[in-house]
Amino acid sequence: MTAPHFVLTLSCPDTVGIVHAVSGVLVTQSCNIVDSAQFGDPATHRFFMRVTFAAPSGATAAGMEQVFAATAKRFEMELRVHELGAKTRTLILVSKFGHCLNDLLFRAGSGGLAIEVAGVASNHTDFAELAAAHHIPFHHLPVTAATKLEQEARLLALVDSLGVELVVLARYMQVLSNDLCRKLQGRAINIHHSFLPSFKGAKPYHQAYERGVKLIGATAHYVTPDLDEGPIIEQEATRVDHAMGPDRLVEVGRDVECLVLARALKLHVEHRVLLNGSRTVVFS
After folding, report:
1. What confidence score (pLDDT) does residue 65 get?
2. In the CATH hierarchy, which fold is given to the domain comprising 5-83?
């Protein structure tokens, strides 16, 4: 039988002996390290580590976390162990623009992204047929200013009932309340164009065209109460020129958004992203 493989991630105050201690525990459990990366941040004085390892048959992620309990307490670690390659149950939120949704559904269905799409939820019905074509449940959650809190309660109930581990805002054009952001902390990812904060509001690409912008980009980040200012996971930019009108800029921008969001999700579900205050450590 193939040995089970796991990913261990940790962060803790930086000090001497962390790598030695982690390696030592793995040796006592007859585990073999396949890949290891670490980073000590001189600004925050915290240490970050990601280790992929093979374990004896019968080992479980929960069991391995228990094995590390004493070491984690000794070094004040925030430590997690995940089964390598396990699919992350994901809920995708979308509004009127479906390019990111369509891209993620294709990647998930073709095996390019280790997520299990538990459902698609939207404040509109535009993409119900797209979800159905992928045999994924679609949930219509309409919202108005008067019903926002009620709608968010339904959304959170959906997250709980479906066993969702990750919520993706794939161009979901609703601002989440501070309360919901806190409840989804570390497990909700958003994508937006990188013009912010320069070009806010409607038609940002048209605003960019009027200003003669030469670079178009996108940012994927964790959702926090600070609107569009959560810890950044991934970014990308591409050059444009004077011959491109607003509609062409929109097309280019959507391509970049799809790419950046997919990359961010891949990094997240492979447990390569560790939070470092308002920033992230990304082991690529």
Report:
1. 98
2. Alpha-Beta Plaits (3.30.70)
